[in-house]
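pasting for the record
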Amino acid sequence: MPSGLVALFDDVAVIARAASASVDDIAAAAGRAGSKTAGVVIDDAAVTPSYVTGLSPARELPIIWAITKGSLFNKLVILLPGAILLSEFLPWLIIYILMLGGAFLSYEGAEKVMEKLGGKKHGKTVDDVIENPQEFEKKRISGAIRTDLILSAEIMAIVLNELDLDIWWERGAALALVGVAVTIVVYGAVAIIVKLDDIGLKLAQSDSSGISSFGEGLVAFVPKLLIALSFIGTIAMLWVGGGIIVHGTHEIGFDLFYDIAHGAEYAVQSATGALSGVLGWATYAAISAIIGLLLGAVIAFVLHKVFGFEGAH
């Protein structure tokens, strides 16, 4: 009996070690794959603050919380089961889904560039007059969750494409881990960003001149931060969207974009010595963004000029 009990404990220990190894593998794979989503995450964090623009400061955090819950539902309830089934039965389809998402990101980024250059704005903008705040808030939340669904699908597809896990439940766990982590990081950052001006106003009322000056500076800084985030988000969309197209077309046998981007990257690396890694990557990213901009401009032209699509921001 004791020997049987010892054997049982040994078996449990083996299972525990195996489970621990699986958890480590999942965490490591999730970390590696999650790093590939940085561009989409930046875009998500840059876009989301616009959804509370023009609304009461008291409603900002409740709105962000509503969007956060919608984002988790998108990732864990809608996208995760589909991603697991896709990886199990139709893994070849992942690259095409990625390229579809890359084309969408390129289109969104190109449209923002064209609007900044004086092009027509499509759909509603944050400058529109708010006639019914409650109805406007509902529409803004639903619009944010729809946008999040697209960005979340792209994040999940990128992660799925990068995972090197053979067992379906391990892939699912890694996807869930990245999905929850990205959601917390993005919407936590957004919550801080949208309340910075309120924090600044509170500090500006302090009796301490130093704290008061800091608060006033913070209030003045927030609009500049939002502008910078908008710019960074646009660049991120073009870089990530174009990069996905470069990689995806190479994977299916069309090497033109891949050869151009990597050829320029290697040329810069060979000519820049100690800075070759950074400058080579920057070159590849810049060419990917240009490819994304050109592709997005073509898509925007076809949608708006050929099919008359107005869109909704």
